[in-house]
Design goal:
The chain is mainly α and about 250 residues long.
């Protein structure tokens, strides 16, 4: 445990008490972005329909497509399959979408928007006020890992499409950038500046490491060589050492 209160305590950045619990520094957020009009994820205008039936058909097509892309992959899913799964004709499909890529883009955009609101909002610094350092780090990792490990098949398709399609890659990069910004805000708020002088760079390294580890843990890029429990423990140790120093990570 820390015995000396660091200079950062005087600025309100982090508590140096005996249990090393997190205190959030107010006014530390520098995150840009959000639901602005230039956003690929949030800035797209919502389709509006005069009839409720048309809206339900549109939503049903997107849901059916998302499920089929997850089960079969992009290449093995064809527009007649989507139409059949949605209970409509192929002609009806083409009244709403020009091809299967367009519906995949929309389904992916919705997935990422949902993940942003449900996952990244849980990384706000104030959520970790008063939490022990180790517990806070484990919460952060669980949130980040959960996004990928809860939908491994869908993530596998997303990884493949990101490598093949510029529009999908742009959507994914916007989500990743938002995640890195949110992590940088968190590190800026709870970590001593002497340990993390560059929160943005640290967020990049931690996010990339966690994302790649999550892909392996979930089996997205192949079967993992160690158990999820062991991988999570090692990942937690690595992040603790990166954020709070080797000696302190061993004693918290």
């Amino acid at each position: 445990m820390l015995t000396n209160v660091p200079q950062s305590v005087k600025t309100g950045r982090i508590v140096g008490s005996s249990d090393d619990r997190v205190t959030v520094r107010t006014g530390s957020s520098q995150r840009a972005g959000g639901d602005d009009e230039d956003s690929l994820i949030f800035g797209q205008p919502s389709r509006r329909f005069r009839q409720e039936r048309a809206r339900k058909t549109y939503e049903g097509l997107i849901e059916a497509a998302a499920n089929l892309f997850t089960e079969r992959g992009f290449d093995a899913t064809q527009t007649p399959d989507i139409a059949q799964a949605a209970g409509v004709s192929v002609g009806t499909f083409y009244r709403y979408f020009s091809d299967k890529k367009e519906i995949y883009i929309e389904a992916t955009r919705r997935d990422l928007a949902r993940a942003y609101r449900q996952v990244l909002d849980r990384l706000k610094p104030e959520r970790f006020e008063g939490t022990g350092r180790r517990a806070a780090i484990e919460q952060v990792l669980q949130i980040m890992l959960g996004f990928i490990t809860s939908m491994p098949e869908r993530q596998r398709v997303l990884v493949e499409m990101t490598m093949r399609d510029e529009q999908v890659a742009a959507l994914r990069e916007e989500f990743d950038a938002a995640a890195r910004d949110r992590l940088a805000d968190l590190f800026r708020a709870i970590c001593p500046i002497e340990d993390v002088p560059d929160p943005e760079a640290m967020a990049y390294v931690v996010y990339t490491s966690v994302k790649e580890s999550a892909y392996h843990i979930a089996g997205v890029t192949g079967a993992p060589s160690v158990s999820r429990r062991r991988a999570f423990a090692a990942l937690s140790d690595m992040v603790m050492r990166a954020l709070f120093g080797i000696e302190r990570a061993a004693t918290v």
